[in-house]
Amino acid sequence: LDPKNIARSDLEIELSKGSTDILPVSSSVDNIEMKAALDKGAVLVDYLKGSIAGGTFLVKGNISNISTTQDSSFNISLKDINLKKILPEETSHKPFFEGTLGATLSSKFKGFDKTKIFETLSAKGNIDIKDPVLKNMNILRVVLDQLNMFPGLTRKLESKLPDYYKKVLEEENTYFKPISSDLNIKGSKILLNVLNIRSDTFFVATKGISLDMNTYDLAASSYSNIFIPKDLSDVFIDTVKEFSYLTNKDGMITMPLSIGGRLPNISIIPDMDYVLNKLAVSKGQELLGNIFGNDSSEESTPSVENNKGETSQPQDEGARKEVKPGEVLL
After folding, report:
1. Which residue blocks in the chain are alpha helix, DSSP H?
2. Which of 18-32, 82-96, 232-246 has the lowest mean pLDDT?
């Protein structure tokens, strides 16, 4: 249809029982219903709704300047979308993501062809994912297996873990709590803003995850960390005391993660450089503390209190000057 001819028309459009496979997903769009009108060079969409990937969608909005720039503004609602049916088919035995998606979006774009739409698309809104599962990957086990500087770590932990945690660690998949996030879309890139992704044994905090709708490439921000709850961290530390060097002020073991991949496949790798550096620095500080710490032997002299209520050691000509590590090395 010629947009210029459409622009000169005034008419109402109704559609029912429509179907299409034009979208770049494995699931077709069915049960399409639409009510719209052409009025003074604009398309006014009362509703466009249908079913896709086991769920439903609803679109309302308008297209102005239809004969020239085709400026579109639409509000979009998605409900109960099966992610497995809209993502590329998973590769056998590799990790992939499943869940049920809901979303609300306000979008703007220009043109009618895919290239023009992606060049000009902008949108913002929020998403919710129910029953999220990362198949074929137990994230906590992957992280522990990567810590190969502690030989037999996973086996040692399994012998001390409470039965519930032991069962979780033996799971093939990772089961998450429901996920919610604000999102922004610019061109073909989807950005999920600050996320806290939780399971029963850890949570991951990240400042953002991006997804390219053309390639399905997934990448997290450089600030992505895993946190292990304190009760479980205590079990880890009781098994391998060096874990205490990886704890934050709340007593939770934490370390950076690298998150990426091409959907539906996902890779999650702990930052081993951080772990090794943290262990080396903390162990070094402990050793220096042992070497240069205060002598607690019987030769130590009692402290005295001055007139300000402060305690100090008596000084005499034989008292040793405080030694700094750098001075010993020199």
Report:
1. 3-7, 83-86, 114-120, 139-146, 153-160, 163-170, 230-239, 272-292, 325-329
2. 18-32
Q: Which of 206, 190, 187 is nearest to 198 (CA)?
A: 206
282-288 average pLDDT score: 59
Asked whether the CA dihedral 151, 157, 158, 159 is positive or negative, the reply is positive
Closest residue by Cα to residue 234 from 253, 261, 255: 253
CA 273 vs. chain centroid, Å, equals: 21
Structure tokens at 27: 């699931």
**C-alpha angle 247-251-253 in degrees, rounded to nearest 5:** 40
90 φ, ψ to 5°? -70, 150
Contact 72, 42 (CB under 8 A): no
User: Which range among 64-78, 268-282, 310-324 shows the weakest confidence by mean pLDDT?
Assistant: 310-324
Find the length of the chain.
Answer: 330
CA distance 321 to 318: 9
Handedness of CA 110, 116, 117, 121 (dihedral sign): negative
pTM of structure = 0.75
Pick 266 or 45 by higher pLDDT: 45
Cis peptide before 302 (omega within 30 of 0): no
Q: What is the pLDDT of residues 68-77, one digit of tens each?
A: 888 999 999 9
Sign of CA dihedral 203, 205, 208, 210: negative
Give the 3-state secondary structure of 38-53. EECCEEEEEEEEEEEC
Cβ pair 221, 206 in contact under 8 A? yes
Model confidence over 109-118: pLDDT tens digits? 998 887 888 8
**Three-state secondary structure of 115-138:** HHHHHHCEEEEEEEEEEEEEECCC
- Distance CA(65)–CA(305), nearest Å, equals 86
Q: Which of 167, 300, 145, 140 is nearest to 229 (CA)?
A: 140
- 142 sits in which H/E element: helix 139-146
